[in-house]
Amino acid sequence: MTTIDRKRVVVTGLGAITPIGNTLTDYWEGLLSGRNGIGAITLFDAARHDCRIAGEVKGFDPHVYMDRKEAKRMDRFAQFGVSASKQAIADAKFVINALNAEQVGVLIGTGIGGLKVLEDQQEINLTKGPDRCSPFMIPMMIANMAAGLTAIHTGAKGPNSCSVTACAAGSNAIGDAFRLVQNGYAQAMICGGTEAAVTPLSVAGFAACKAMSTRNDDPAHASRPFDKDRDGFVLGEGSGILIIEELEHALARGARIYAEIVGYGATCDAYHITSPVPGGEGAARAISLALKDANLTPDQVSYINAHGTSTPANDSTETAAMKKALGEHAYKITVSSTKSMTGHLLGGSGGIEAVAAVMAVANDRVPPTINLDNPDPDCDLDYVPHHSREQIVDVALSNSFGFGGHNVTLAFKKYR
Hints:
Blueprint: E1 9-17, H1 24-33, E2 39-40, E3 53-54, H2 68-72, H3 76-92, E4 104-109, H4 115-127, H5 137-141, H6 145-154, E5 160-161, H7 169-182, E6 188-195, H8 200-208, E7 238-246, H9 247-252, E8 259-268, H10 281-294, E9 303-305, H11 312-326, E10 334-336, H12 339-342, H13 349-363, E11 365-366, E12 389-390, E13 395-402, E14 406-413
Parallel strand pairs: 4-5, 4-6, 9-10, 9-13
Antiparallel strand pairs: 1-7, 1-8, 2-3, 6-7, 8-14, 11-12, 13-14
């Protein structure tokens, strides 16, 4: 069997639509300044809900990226994904044309897909009858449509898929896209995650399983990863997209390179539908596999963008996993959870957090974990509380974990 010559893969474009900013610049500045994106839910009347707060995207206008007819036929999650993808393509100064279209693919993950459309159409079905349902319901609702519509809007005709691995979906999408470029199946990929699940049914469901914060009277301090007073995650929405390219392709067109993507680790706990395995064994293996894939040792890691959901189980388990995978070096690196500012974007979280990790490598700045006032004794690493920090970031990892036991770690490195 012939061994495939693995290609080097670099990040050349970034796009972000988030609760703290709807462009890459605004998002990154928001992270560094510790901007809070959590507030009272305005997308629907949440008065009867136990949880009435979320990280909503504010001031988003899809018509900047598409015409009104196109926007009307997309669920919000797809609008976010297409729009962030167009941002990233523009940022990369990447032109998709007849010569390269078949070598440019799209892989955008989501945890749920078009839930708002599903909820609205079910209401119509029940109150007005099945013959009143929209003919666009199915193509607006299905999870793969962010990837499909991005291809339609950009002309990318290469590999196209959608990972649906709960809160690991965005990271799985980036990792799988990395493999496609690394192994020569595409020259470039548009990849990341998107989600728009701030809906009545979603909020009710997560609240019913006691996963969400009910700090309704103090939303600015509700998302508090690694803090002993945390009481659950805060739902967020948005999209984060990367343009990744085979190195020689990027160099040939004179592209700016943010970072090199060098490692991808994916495992499963095979333990429980919602709870992580005690001790974080599955997450630790994902970290170790990403380092092995990248040919890196634990002492080369500078920063980890943690999954850091602000739930009692995740934060202590993730801390244990980082210590298990990195040993004593875990105490020498910086770790932060940007979910403290954005909330938890479910399938979109891996996308915006990979963007944050890449920007940390590119700019030698580490975002903070805000609201970390009283650290949990079981969470005893350097979580960069309250304020961003300047430091050399040669290698950054991004962790994502999802219901079902999915664990993903991505490794980014300075391009040299």
